[in-house]
Amino acid sequence: MIVEIGHFALVLAFALALVQSVLPVWGARSGDARLMATAGPSALGQFLFVAITAAALIHAHVVSDFSVVNVVENSHSLKPLLYKITGVWGNHEGSMLLWVAILALFGGLVAFFGGNLPASLKANVLAVQAWIASAFYLFILSTSNPFARISPAPIEGNDLNPVLQDIGLAIHPPLLYLGYVGFSIAFSFAVAALLDGRIDAAWARWVRPWSLAAWICLTLGIAMGSYWAYYTLGWGGWWFWDPVENASFMPWLAGTALLHSAIVMEKRDALKIWTILLAILTFSLSLLGTFLVRSGVLTSVHAFATDPARGVFILAILVLFIGGSLTLFAWRAPGLKPGGLFAPISREGALVFNNLFLTVGCAIVLVGTLYPLVYEMATGAKITVGPPYFNLVFGAFIAVLLAAVPFGPMLAWKRGDLLGAAERLWFAFALAAIVTIAIWWPSTGALLTALGIGLAVWVMAGAVVEWAMRIRLLRAPLGESLSRAWGLPGATWGMTLAHFGIGMAVLGIVSESSWNEERILAMKPGEVVTIGDYQVALDGMIPRKGENYAEEAAHLSIRRGGALVTYLEPSRRMFATRRMATSQTGIATFGFSQLYIALGETDKTGASAVRLYWKPLVTLIWLGPLIMALGGLASLLDRRRRIGAPVPARKPVSKGGGPKDSGPPAPAAPMAAE
């Protein structure tokens, strides 16, 4: 009965989405306030019904209702409870339900927090959200119904892919989808603005918090996905430029450009056309990622769907929304005013430079991702575009952008002084130069490594120097500097943390890539192997049994200089239902570095294949994005970043009690420089 309730709630959500798709737009076109007012309740009702749908599917998995095809194919009665719940979105049907649930969540949030939005803009935004939702509800109900029944019901299920039976699955997909789908709000605001004809600084202020929230989630989702693959797959790598990895990275690059472009639009009422286009392209890339993962055109541990009919349906959605929005943009863009002017050497100019390099970098990744697919369709032959292309082309291009990052915050709005900015960055440059020479001088063959680490130090030191100048550190009494630091706007803290986090991630990437040590060998109990500064001894093998798997673990003693520092127990698990084996890595963290050990099969002689890695500063690769996300959160919580329209200042009142003039309300006070 609960399954039927969930299915019926999904149909009702689809019906409400259709209502929300039509009535608010009709009201906005005709000026009917009552029709426009239907958008909010429809969005909230839609979210309620989708929540009921999701709860019903989770219940079916938890109680192991094997009359539901989705449960049969992706669950097992012996599977731990946590993985029964997270396994709901560890498959195609469940992941698409999560997709529309998050879409409905964002629509409900706009309805709830958008009270300050103009009625017509709010109606159009929620209508566009409903257009997207309607398409995906139709897709789910017609091709990917998670509540399809099977009769007679089997006694037991097929279990979930063992690779996905991990705590990472509980965190990674929801965060990634919050980022993917969150950018639909920016898309809806862009399309609504083109329909409504209102595109100004206030629009940028409305859309920026939603874009920032999506960016934070996508940053964390990508980082979590990277770490999950790192410790789960036992391969020792953290990024392989897999097409599905790229599918999440491209919206992140475009979304980062969108955030910076919105700053210029908000501050100077400039870059209107470009900001609108970025809002459209960012979500378009999210849709493209959905197509790549769900269509079956790619084979990856991340991909689920293999049914061509689903791929054609999603491709139609892709063409409809991307093509339709770009057509609307081409029609409306010529009528947009260019906005404020600024000199090339200025804060605005630096942000434009940032946008240029981020979007070209995104295009580099897009070409490398899609070219093998296009080539195969055109010729029938398969080719691979792998890490050498991305590392060389994308890496070199982004290095130029990173070199310019510290200059941006040092420049004034409208017209800046590049030489003055360089003088203020002397400490950061000197520190980066010293570090570069210190790394390169002992080993002249490590020039690229030295330059890469120097670049990371330059970015981090530049962020700290800019922050120190704002609080007059060492130029004013400590108490005054601390008071200034406490009073800094959240957006300023956000910028500093985000730029510092980028430098940390680059430092981790360069260090791990350059100084990583690897050893692959067969070990017998009692043998010792040295890697880095550590001695690893295999004490013996331990057989164990879990709830739905059998496991053989290696008990390893880790010593440094003869002193025991820790134990590790990497293992291999065999899942009988799926007849699949997985590798459970053993990882010991020392400072920011890690000793990483993966266990292979044991041969007839009793020797076990062991893969050992020493990874210097590898944790900075994920700590950097975490700091970046904290920076985004600080900016999001800035009291000036309210979700909604800026409230105009009140008119001054004369002594006689009436207004001094009959002119328009005074605009809100301009934001402080970030």
Give a brief rundown of this model.
The chain has helices at 2-30, 33-36, 39-62, 69-74, 81-86, 92-113, 119-143, 168-196, 201-232, 243-268, 272-294, 308-332, 347-379, 387-404, 418-424, 426-440, 447-470, 478-487, 490-515, 620-636; strands spanning 517-523, 528-531, 534-545, 550-560, 563-568, 571-575, 580-584, 586-590, 593-602, 608-615. By secondary structure, it is of the alpha+beta class.
Task: Give structural attributes.
single chain, 674 residues, alpha+beta, six-stranded antiparallel sheet, four-stranded antiparallel sheet
* Structural class computed from helices and strand pairing: alpha+beta
Kindly provide the radius of gyration, computed on alpha-carbon positions and rounded to a whole number of angstroms.
27 Å
| Gross geometry | globular
User: What is the CA–CA distance across the termini?
Assistant: 55 Å
The major sheet is characterized as:
6 strands, antiparallel
The number of helices is 20
Question: Could you walk me through the main structural features you see in this protein, from its secondary elements to its overall organization?
Answer:
This protein is of the alpha+beta class and 674 residues long. Among the domains are: 425-513, no CATH class; 517-615. It is 59% helix and 11% strand. The protein is built from 20 helices and ten strands. It has helices spanning 2-30, 33-36, 39-62, 69-74, 81-86, 92-113, 119-143, 168-196, 201-232, 243-268, 272-294, 308-332, 347-379, 387-404, 418-424, 426-440, 447-470, 478-487, 490-515, 620-636, and strands spanning 517-523, 528-531, 534-545, 550-560, 563-568, 571-575, 580-584, 586-590, 593-602, 608-615. Strands 2, 3, 4, 5, 6 and 7 form a six-stranded antiparallel β-sheet that branches. It has a four-stranded antiparallel β-sheet with strand order 1-10-9-8. Strand 9 (593-602) and strand 10 form a beta hairpin. Helix 9 (201-232) packs antiparallel against helix 20, helix 11 (272-294) packs antiparallel against helix 12 (308-332) and helix 13 (347-379) packs antiparallel against helix 14. It is globular, with a radius of gyration of 27 Å. Residues 643-674 have low confidence and may be disordered.
